[in-house]
Amino acid sequence: MLVVSICAFSQSTFTKSFTLDWDNTTPITIDKMTTITIPTIVNHGINSNNIPHYTTTFNVQSYGIVPKYHVKNVKFEKIEQNLLKAINLDKISDSLIVHFNLGLAKNKAYGVLALEGLVKQNGQVLKITAFDFEYTIENNARKYIPTPVYKQESVLNQGQWYKFAIDTSGVFKLDKALLENMGINTKDINPRDIRIYGNGGAL
Q: Rounded to an integer, what distance in angstroms lies between the CA atom of residue 67 and that of residue 180?
């Protein structure tokens, strides 16, 4: 018997617009004795170099691979030098640092977009205040996605699990809005029952 599987692929390109709100006097606690004040993007964190970091999750039309993506129509504003004292200026890039991944939760596809909020241009540190994000999804016409099978003794064998892609170091906020945006019903969740596990890194 000869079995032939035929897959059809298609590409679609989408654009989303984002606006970043800034707070120039955010207190960040380093330890019990140390608190620093730095500019941050409202409701977002900082990375290991104290550079403001923006991460957002949004629904996408389908799950697949992302062959290309880019940021365009970026709007910048100057930031006062005295606000940058606690930031490692040598680590601020002279080009945009952007990461984008797709995820799947309850068979609903979502995108995770992350970028650093500061960039250097001609020696001047600028903050990003708005941008358009264009991405292309290449998806397979076959929609079937197998359910993972875990060993009996695995901690993943019980409960509901969701996978998050974290491709840069820093401080990230996992809140109710993010979970609901992924299609998770937070009304039935007891925060004490939430567990976070890493694969190959420390949490």
A: 27
Q: Which of 16, 34, 17, 36 is nearest to 26 (CA)?
A: 36
In this predicted structure, the answer to whether residue 95 has a pLDDT above a threshold of 50 is yes
Show the 3-state SS of 24-93. EEEEEEEECCEEEEEEEECCCCECCCCCEEEEEEEECCCCCEEEEEEEEEEEEEECCHHHHCCCCHHHCC
Instruction: Please state, in angstroms and rounded to a whole number, the distance separating the CA atoms of residues 155 and 160.
Output: 11
Report d(CA 76, CA 87) in Å as an integer: 18
Residue whose C-alpha is closest to residue 171's, from 57, 30, 23, 22: 30
Structural contact between residues 63 and 109, judged by C-beta atoms closer than 8 angstroms: yes
Helix H or strand E segment including 11 = strand 9-19
Q: What is the pLDDT of residues 36-81, one digit of tens each?
A: 788 999 999 888 888 999 999 999 988 888 999 999 999 999 988 8
User: Which pLDDT belongs to residue 150?
Assistant: 55
